[in-house]
Amino acid sequence: MSKIEIKNLTFGYGTQGTLLFDEANLTFDTQWKLGLIGRNGRGKTTLLKILQQQLAYSGQVIHQLDFVYFPQPIQDKAQLTFYVLQEIADFEQWEIERELNLLQVDPAILWRAFETLSGGEQTKVLLALLFINEQSFPLIDEPTNHLDLLGRQQVANYLKKKRQGFIVVSHDRSFVDEVVDHVLSIEKSQLELYQGNFSVYEEQKKIRDAFELSQNEKLRKEIGRLKKTAAEKADWSKSREQDKYGRPSEKGSGGNPDKGFVGARAARTMKRSKVIEGRMDKQVSEKEQLLKDIEYIDPLTMNLQPSHHKRLLSVEDLSLSYAEKKLFQGISFEVGQGQRVALVGPNGSGKSSVIHYLLGQFKGESDGKAIYPQTLKISYVRQNYEDNQGTLTEFAEAQGLDYQAFLNNLHKLGMAREVFQNRIEQMSMGQRKKVELAKSLAQPADLYIWDEPLNYLDVFNQEQLEELILSVQPAMLLVEHDQTFLAKVETEIVFLKWNKDKA
């Protein structure tokens, strides 16, 4: 069995004031199926890049492996999928077909243009490429993005059956629970390794957090008691010092205090007060060491501008087609004030195409119609937002955003203020997703259209969005595969029946 050893790893991006890793040490077995978890921006993708020697760092990373990374960059998405994959790696056709069959994907997909595949289909073909060579060690970054519930289960089953180890980054708890046997958590101040799945990590994390909170409360009370005692002794010492020379009220009274005795006693008391202050300072220092890895979540804000129209969107018997092949059977639905309609269906059934149609971006054929007020203001969260570039100031100005509201939501979503100085294209995928989401939250809108908003977001962010939506009650059209999230926020589900006969 081979190992990956990390010794004294130190790394931080030049424009950030804090280090992502500071003298980190870690050893893990390459046979492990390791889940890498942590809040966005903590360095999950950065660690994968360091393993691949793509970033300069101090310390040592020792291994004898050939790493392969998902998602692989695609040069020309207009090519047939087979040729797109061949530009990434060498393989025989039967090898890629074998992996696709294991993923329950029809190998005929290889002879379609890559850009025509749904996000879930693209995910599966790129995953298949990782496991053709069993001597390679896969680094899998967010494979559940764009996968529907069935697709996530298919990928989970696929990974569970693999004999070789891998590292997988995912915020989908149930997915991680199924596929990993060890968890590496990037906390605020340290790396923590756990044997077991996400549930084991979460339970142990709760126990540790509860212990730290308990210790913090004890220290807080002790510091308060010490402060009071030190202040009382200091006050007494000062008053006794005055007795050496007689209090103003005592002058001329004939009193003759023993100045030496009073002074010595006052000095001893002052010394004890200084000792108490020293103990207090030590405990304050100990208190500062606690709670470093406890997460605090702030509520988000949304710039909802309710319309006087009760009905914001009406879709009547809509069907969409490519080359006369229907994506789904006709659908009808309405979105009114406070309603949150979720479009649900398998990958490739046309959910994102419905959104593109409503925004005037669909390039195929359509039947049916959509009716909405001409003054309707829509705020849109896209699946693909790679064109977001520049500084946050430049981006906010170009998008016409309230800059302060935009930054406030970014910070509440967990983006460190040091990252505000980075260009968007230099940010992690999780940070870039937060930029897209914070943009939508800052835009004045009657209707919010969000296409897979949870991709790249951690569980804390997901809870923030749930609380925001339930509090503000905006009108929304949603595409999302996380069933827990939808169950909490949707008011109506529209099922897209997939046309299996489509090309």
Short description:
The protein contains 14 helices and 18 strands.
CATH-derived architecture of the largest domain: 3-Layer(aba) Sandwich
Give the name of the CATH superfamily of the largest domain.
P-loop containing nucleotide triphosphate hydrolases
Measured between the Cα atoms of the first and last residue, the distance is: 46 Å
Q: What strand order characterises the main sheet?
A: 5-6-7-3-8-9
How much of the polypeptide forms β-strand, as a percent range? Answer: 15-25%
Q: Helix tally?
A: 14
CATH domain class of the largest domain: Alpha Beta
Largest sheet: 6 strands, mixed
Rg, alpha carbons: 30 Å
Low-confidence segments, ≥5 residues, pLDDT <50?
249-253
User: What proportion of the residues is helical, as a percent range?
Assistant: 25-40%
Pfam family, one: ABC_tran
Biased composition (Basic and acidic residues): 232-250
GO molecular function: ATP binding; ATP hydrolysis activity
Protein name: Lincosamide and streptogramin A transport system ATP-binding/permease protein
Give structural notes.
There is one protein chain. The chain is an alpha/beta fold and 503 residues long. The chain folds into three domains: 3-196, Rossmann fold, CATH 3.40.50.300; 206-290; 311-495, 3-Layer(aba) Sandwich (Rossmann fold). Helices cover 39% and strands 20% of the residues. The chain has 14 helices and 18 strands. The protein has a six-stranded mixed sheet, with helices on both faces. A five-stranded parallel sheet has the order 15-16-17-13-18, sandwiched between helices. Helix 13 links the parallel strand 16 (447-451) and strand 17 (475-479). Helix 5 packs parallel to helix 6 (173-179) and helix 7 packs antiparallel against helix 8. The longest helix has 46 residues, at 198-243. It is globular, with a radius of gyration of 30 Å.
